[in-house]
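Help! Submission page says 'invalid entity' but I think these are all valid:
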Amino acid sequence: MTPELGHFALALAVALACAQAVLPLWGAHNRDPRLMASGPALALGQLIALATSFGCLVWSGVTDDFSVSNVARYSSSLEPLFYKITGTWGNHEGSILLWCLILALCGGVVAVFGRDLPSALRARVIGVLGFTSAGFLLFALTASNPFTRVWPPPIQGQSINPLLQDPGLAMHPPILYAGYVGFAIPFAFAVAALLEGRVDAAWGRWVRPWTLAAWCLLTCGIALGSWWSYYVLGWGGYWFWDPVENASLLPWLTGTALLHSAIVVEKREALKIWTVLLAIGTFSLSLSGTFLVRSGLLNSVHTFASDPTRGVFILALLAIVIGGSLLLFALRAPVLSAAGVFAPVSREGAIVLNNILLCSLAAVVLTGTMYPPMAELLFGAKLSVGPPYFHDTVIPLVAPLFAAMSLGPILPWKRADLGAALMKLWWAALAAALVGIAVGFGVRDAFAALGLTAATWMILGAAAQLVERTRLFRLPWRASRERLGAQPLAVWGAAVAHAGMGVTIAGIAGMALASSSVVAVKTGQTVALGGYDWTLLGLHNAPGPDYVSRVADLRVTRDGRQVALMHPARHDFTVQHQNISDASIITNGMRDLYAVLGDERDGQVVLRLHVNLMAPWIWLGALVMALGGGLSLADRRLRVGAPARRRRAAQTVPAE
Amino acid sequence: MTRLFAAILVLLALTGGAHAVSDPAEMLANPVLEHRAEALGSQLRCLVCQNESVEQSNADLAKDLRRIIRQRIVAGESDRQVMAWMVARYGDFIRLSPPFDAMTLLLWFAPAIAVASGVGAALLARRGRAAPPAPLSVAEREHLDALLDP
Amino acid sequence: MEALTRRRLLMLGPLAIAAGAGGAGAALLLRMQEGRYDPHALPSMLIGKKLPVFTLPGQPPSAGFSSADVTARGRPAVVNFFASWCVPCVEEAPTLAALKRDGVPLWGIAYKDKADATAGFLDRHGDPYVRVARDESGTVGIDFGLYGVPESYLVDASGIVRWRWAGGLSPDIVHQDLLPKMRALA
């Protein structure tokens, strides 16, 4: 019964999405207030229907209803409850349904929080969201339906891939998709603005909170995926430039550019065309990423069960959504005119540089990822592009980006004196140089030295933003403190986010100094690595819910004092005949101790040991960046797309 | 067909044991040579597993290739010779960093082309911008004042 | 050119790029469906080159053989790598048996397999080979550019590799590719 209900709710959602796509846009075109007002209601209706559908799928998994083929193929009754729930999105059909749910959520969120938007704009935004939803829901209903049944139902499901039975990976898709799909809202705003034929400062202000929210979620999603790789895959790597990882990085890069560009539209009414193009481009990259991952075109660790027929459907969907929006852009954008003029050296100029560098980074990552299939198509050559290529090309691009990151926020709008601005940062530059020299001579690793120099520059540069605004040391202490308190949250947000990037870079640089070793030890034997002594105490077996573990007990000491007791393990999954390694990681915020259990032979146990310096900072930095984004989001000036409450009565109605 | 082959590949990957640890007995005694071997291994793609290097992978084929790399380094071959040996058997696909030749020009020049296009677009946009409106003439200013303060 | 027209052309850029990418994507998908594109497959470097030189011990009771032996009779032949632990090898066994009946010389190399396991495999699924050799270390396989089993190499009378199939041979592949090529070489 429940799967039938879910199936029906899905079909209902399709119908509502189609209505949502047509009616509000028609209403905005004809300036019909009733049709325009139908938008929010339809969006909420679609959300409720889809939430019901998704809930039914989750319920089928929880109750072990193996007559639903999706549950039979990807779940089993032996799994813990948590994984029965999260396993709903651990496969193709379920994850598409999750995607659609989040898209519907976007529509609902605009319906609820977008009340202060002009009705025509809101109607158009919801209409565009409905159009995209309709396309994906049709795909879900026809080509990738999670509610198909299998009869007779098997007694036991084939169970989820053991690699996915992990809390980090279980939560990774929802957060990542929320980021990916969240960029649909700025996309809808861009298309709506093109349909209206007007991009102005107000539009810039309205677009920013949605972009920030999506950006924060995407940052967290990518960081979570990277962290999961680190602690599961067993040799301390955290980014492989795998095509699927690159597909998530691309919208993040252009999304960051979009974030900054929207500021210029709001403050100076310039860079309108850039911003609209970035909004369309970011969501296009999200969609293309979906296509690439599910089509099987790429050589990747993450491929889902690839099915070329699904690929055709998604490609057609992409052609309509992306092609349509870019065509609209080509038709309408040329008449958008900028009002603000600015000199090359100014904050706007710095943001233009930022845009160019971020988009170049995106172009390089895209080229590297797509080159193998393209080369095969055009030249018949079989090439592969891996991490060494990306290191060689990305690092020269991020270097000027990091340098400019601290300088940009210090520059005034419209016209700036570069020399004067640089003088304001003299202390940050000095500190960065000192750190670089100290690290360089201390550990003799160029990568680590440069990385930590950049990190210091970025973190102190972020602090410099606040120092400048409070005129620290130029005004009395109390006056500076008052100014600090009076700073809007957006200023704090920007400083914290920039500092967060510095923290991540520091972590990456520190990892270059990690020590690691693969050793074969007997019980009772001690090995020295990275300033610690590692002793194997023994091995034992331990049962788990659907696996049997072999666990090693490892004692780590430093100068005789016990630092940690580690239990790296290996899980043998009975149903799928697969072994999964469970690395043991002990962190103290500044370094990770990392141990992996390997083979046992001739009475010896093979262990892989790492001391990863500053590894936690990589993900801590991402968290700080997201926090910065959150602070900006909390700034009242951004969230409410209108003046403060007490002046609501004076708010003008658009002359339409 | 490809599904069958995928099954072979999976089987190969699993028979090596899904342990993400390599054997310390593999490592060379000489740390300098071992470092070279690891660097070379990181430049080669493991053909059985997806998107891992020969150094990282725990597949049988990767183990064999690691052993061969070390044998050849100990025998005195240079990095370039070992790489050429691998490419002769598996093609450019085994290289994680593609060679620099006529086919990969676009790939290697991508950063430069991207930045140049961006700067070019920005310059074009500046030039194409409409000039700000001319300041008001005296007659126009008087007309405006009359409208604002009736 | 008028400024506005130049801007219009510039704004068409993104659409043009997206259209190009989309077209390429469609072409790749089409090829994948036809089986002409596989991101995981590797073309053989040996096509058009002589067989790698090797000498391998035999799988008892067969004698071993060398690269020269394969073409000693002056006819095209097929070198087939297999292993007892490989599932598609079991599936291709009937096809290989049919090839033996048709008189195609098959030279088998047991890749990274224990002698008794290989013997058991040949007992269960038949021995279609002229001779069976053992490549226990896998070194000869690497010289061939092998990256999985089974793989089959068609060698002409002078010892040059003309065709390679990675994966199990099926009757379709044999009739569409292998036999026509052998006839062309004879």
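Support: the input was valid. A stray whitespace character was the problem, and the output above is from the cleaned input. The two ends of chain B are 86 Å apart (CA to CA).
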